[in-house]
Amino acid sequence: MLCISIVSCSIDKSGLPQPASSTSIVGKWTHTKIVLVDANNKPLDVTTLSDPKDYIQFNADGTGISSDNQSGTLQTQSFTYKISQNNISLISPSETDSGTITTLTANSLVIHLQLQDLTTHQLVNQFSDNYYTK
Predict the structure, then answer these.
(1) CATH number of the domain enclosing 66
(2) Has residue 2 been placed in a domain?
(3) What does DSSP assign to residue 7?
(4) Residue 37 in contact with residue 56, Cβ under 8 Å?
(5) I want to staple 4 with a disulfide (CB 3.0 to 4.6 A). Which of 45, 92, 102, 132 is the partner?
(6) pLDDT at residue 33 is higher than 80
(7) What domain range is 99 assigned to?
(8) Is 1 inside any structural domain?
(9) Rounded to whole angstroms, how far apart are CA atoms 131 and 134?
(10) Could you give the CA distance from residue 29 to residue 110 in angstroms, rounded to a whole number?
(11) CA–CA separation, 5 vs 88, rounded Å?
(12) Any domain includes 67
């Protein structure tokens, strides 16, 4: 979700994400914080998440699941994902989110996403930096 490029995976001929180094996005990541930023990366709002039920899981076969408990009701959603260098696309039945992996270490992941209008699904000029830990 930002512009610090860390190559995490490359695409093999099967089109599935493959680790390019010892650091891989594959695994379960706890969602710890969301920072909303404007087009100039100026922070607008910070939401700290403390519920371990808020997570995203990337499987080696290019599928995943996300879980959100912010509203008090646990919601999960399956998705597929594609990675090209530090760019990531998360594809679910209702939307496609595209962003940039700005940090990827053994225990830390940050994804910078451009936000969409929930009604029209049009991209808006706001972004979110999503922080995860293992």
Answers:
(1) 2.40.128.280
(2) no
(3) -
(4) no
(5) 102
(6) yes
(7) 9-133
(8) no
(9) 11
(10) 10
(11) 12
(12) yes
Structure tokens at 92: 């679910």
Q: Quote the pLDDT of residue 66.
A: 93
Angle in degrees, CA 101, 9, 127, rounded to 5: 15
What is the model's pLDDT at position 121?
67
Percent of the chain with pLDDT over 90: 45
Q: Where do the H-state alpha helices sit in the chain? A: none
Cβ neighbors of 1 (< 8 A, separation 6 or more) are 99, 100, 101, 102, 110, 111, 112, 113, 127, 128, 129, 130
Question: What would the pLDDT profile of 99-128 be if each residue is shown by its tens digit?
Answer: 999 999 999 999 999 876 667 767 677 788
As a whole number, mean pLDDT of residues 56-85 equals 91
Number of domains in the chain: 1
pTM exceeding the 0.90 threshold for the entire prediction: no
Among residues 55, 35, 53, 52, which one has the least CA distance to residue 44? 35
Q: Mean pLDDT score of the chain, rounded to an integer?
A: 80
| 3 located within any domain | no
The pLDDT confidence band at residue 133, using thresholds 50, 70 and 90, is: very high
DSSP class per residue in 30-44:
EEEEEEEEETT--EE
Helices (H) and strands (E) in the chain, counts: 0, 11
